[in-house]
Amino acid sequence: MYRLAIVLLAATGAYAQLTAQTSVAPELRECYMDSNLVNRNNLPPTTIPVLIDIIRQIEDNPNVNVDLRQLAVLLLHTYRQDGIEFHRPETLGITSANVLPYAPTFHSFHRHRLLLTRIIPNNLQVLANNTLSSALKCSLHHMLSTTVDARLRGDENTCNTLSQYRTMRTAREARHISEDVEILDLSRMSNTDQNGQINEYNPNDDVEYSNYGGGRSERQLLGDSQCPILGGVVKTQWGAVSAGHVIAGIAGGAQSQQVPVIDLAKGSAVNYPNVQQTVTSIFPATLSGDLAEAALIQGTDRGSSQVSIGAAGGWNSTQATKHFVLQTRNNLEMTDPEIRGDVDGFVLGSSISAILGTYNSLKLSQLLDMYYSPRNGVFSPDLRACNRIELARTYISDQTLAAETYAFAAALDTNMPLRGTITGGLDQLVTSAVSSFQSYMTSNLNDMNCITTETTSNDFRSATNLYIVLDGSWQYLTIYPAISFLLDVIEVNKFGSSVTLLNAADASLVVNTTFSLAEFHSAYTAARHQSILTSVNLETVFTNVRTMMHAQLDHERNSNYVGGNSTVLLFLLNTGNLQNNERVWEQARILNETVPDLRIQFATSTNQHDNLWNLVRNMHDDIMTISLGSSDNSIPLVMSPVRDRIQQVGRRIINPNCGSTYPPDSQSGTRQFDDNVEPGYINFYSISPNYFYQNNDNRRVRIVRSSSGTGSLVVCHSRVVTQPRQNGTIVNVDENSVTCQTLASNGNIEISLRNACDGYSTINSCPFFYISVQSVATTTTTSAVCTGARCRFPYNIQYQVQIEEFGCFNGASGVSVSFAFIAIAFLVHVFRL
After folding, report:
1. Residue 598's pLDDT is what?
2. Can you point out the beta strands (E) in 426-584?
3. Which residues of 411-532 form beta strands (DSSP E)?
4. Closest by Cα among 442, 276, 261 to 343
5. Closest Cα partner for 682 from 740, 642, 767, 769?
6. Distance from C-alpha of 552 to C-alpha of 557, rounded to nearest angstrom
7. Which of 251, 734, 767, 777 is deepest in the core (most CB within 10 A)?
8. CA-CA distances (angstroms) from residue 25 to 15, 105, 287?
9. For 127, which DSSP code?
10. Which residues is 450 bridged to in the sheet?
11. What SS3 state is found at 532?
């Protein structure tokens, strides 16, 4: 008996299993009635980080207290309802306020209903409707629910010549809320890789639905669009994945049971020979569920004994992924995302008992986060998405899969309306489907493998409080994908970075500070962007940001904050000829000198270097020009300098006594904070000279190993290299500029800051002190040693950062010194041009 202490929506027999009924579940209906929620462009992108973020919010809800097993089941019963389709009234133009033109009629619903009522039941329990906001609830519903939107959209005859359909829509005259679907260029899609990305989109292309032709049943079974939209898909680095299948596999494996076939057959006789008497719950929840659908539907539709598996597609946008569009309308019973979701769900469900044996308090969000990560995996580097093909070979037996599929197909045949009656040969159809699945998965899913994954990914996690000052003159379609890219790479989440969106006119809040990727995307919509003032006032922004940052420093003093995320103020400006005068520079100077850990950076649409150079600390690297256009395909390249500059700012180590006033003689004494590092990763820190300018022989930083774990820690420090590491290759830097020491399973390493500013006449001229803590991991990560609230992964290595005798030294009082410094900087600037 699993523990259960949760505030659930009152569930009676009448309410039970509403997501398994033949109408849209009452708590999901607003997702199809509210025009803001129907328009997917008002919802967060459908990506694995967003899915994990929403699940974390459920786990963190004080009214929800369930384990991994229970939560996986609750998600299915609360938010997943497969097969919901739009049904235009037979008489065009006539609608009823009492009729919602959506119902679960697509073929995927019939397997879904069996799954929820007979295979993974839930004792009539669901999550309360107020567990998530409406936007996040509808986002989760769409990410978990498999369906195909095959509506004719009006330009199907030009499907091979249209450019990519637009990511977001602009306001037009009133129309039905259901008419918010776009179209894309199939010829371009055919040239994309198998990782589920389209080359680009053109925001000038837009289409509407036209009248349907043919009967309703014909449309539901075959579809009219040459490029239908597949629902229930999330983007990962390792291909598009049907998330509902993953969660179902975990639930089916976590509460595995043998279900009698006769119980699934509606009391009907199973008229097929040699059918095994039971099915194992994880199979119909994943692989055999889709294979059975393919065998039954293709067998009756085409009368052929050959079953086709797999259907490729791509995203509407490389950065703002809202729709996954298929390249074909045929044989959609087991698409590429469903194949990946089935394999991932089957592997995780098959492994879940062993995983929970290693750490029985593992959360569902952690399980997904580890599996869809570049390194380490789920307590083993083998158990991760980049190793999907090898995992399938290890976990899936063709013989067992065929037997389970045959049994479930026999039961599903009594539950699903088909276009014919199978009188024999179902076993041959199943054999063909299984054979096609194995062949297609091995030959056609050319997803990024683990070697490429590790070669192309960073070995550090960003931890940044990013403040974006946004110029409202940007077109939303242009700037939103760029912001989305930055938030993805700095990993906005409760264990990583935060984001705050400010107006460039006055630094007023557009989106308040959040560590939730889903919350940010829900708040920053096209409508919200249109409300932003389009002017840029640097003086007002610097003044108001300084007030905001000073309040934050004082809060940190009151809370004894010793260290954590870096702080970056990024201006994204489209306006040319920015006004920069002495008043602007003075406010920037005060901000830089009184908030020493803040890094001001500019990314502008035109070259503003000569105009802005005196406002930043590093005039050569902190001012960048970005050329954003109508295509978001180039965004990773265009925005990479901005990404790199943000990531080069190390996490903060500070004296909490300083606050915003830097009172003299405010020594820190001994203070500390806890941190942890993922096996094989590095954490980078920086210390401002404002905390060590005047000498103190006892001033030091100490890194203390506070728990066991995999491998050793290597602690490096430098005054020149911002990201020091052992055996690092750094151009034009003395090899002796980085000092490293190894910290084994216990003990500590001390780094002295004695005379750290000797030879520097001002605080501004004294360089920062850079420290790194690197995990030297072994090949396995089989133990759970990091189980606190700050631990993203249970195998992370914990340590403590201690400071001794940090001081408070504020350069803002020396105005003449500051002017001297800026004069020197000007000369350097001139001679380097």
Report:
1. 95
2. 464-470, 498-503, 509-514, 563-564, 566-573
3. 464-470, 498-503, 509-514
4. 442
5. 740
6. 9
7. 251
8. 10, 13, 26
9. B
10. none
11. coil
Lowest-pLDDT range of 53-62, 167-176, 362-371, 470-479 = 167-176
- How many residues in the chain? 833
| Helix/strand/coil for 492 | strand
Q: What distance in Å separates the CA atoms of residue 321 and residue 45, rounded to the nearest whole number?
A: 5
Q: State in Å, rounded, how far the first CA of the chain is from the last one.
A: 73
Radius of gyration of the chain (CA): 29
Contacts of 731 (CB under 8 A, 6+ apart): none
Phi-psi region of 805 (alpha: psi -120 to 50; beta: other; left: phi over 0): left
> Can you read off the two tokens belonging to residue 186?
């199939």
* Cβ neighbours of residue 673 closer than 8 Å, sequence gap 6 or more: 561, 562, 563, 564, 800, 801
Domains and CATH numbers, the chain: 18-170+177-451 (no CATH), 464-649 (3.40.50.410), 670-807 (2.60.120.680)
pLDDT in tens, 78-91: 999 999 999 877 65
Q: Is residue 186 scored above 90 in pLDDT?
A: no
For residue 233, the surrounding DSSP H or E stretch is strand 233-234
Tabulate helix, strand, coil % of the chain (nearest 5): 35, 15, 50
Nearest to 276 by CA among 259, 291, 290, 292: 259
> What are the tokens at 696?
């103190």
Q: Can you list the positions of beta strands (E) in 536-589?
A: 563-564, 566-573
Token duo for residue 436:
């096609």
Q: Which two tokens stand for residue 318?
A: 């490389």
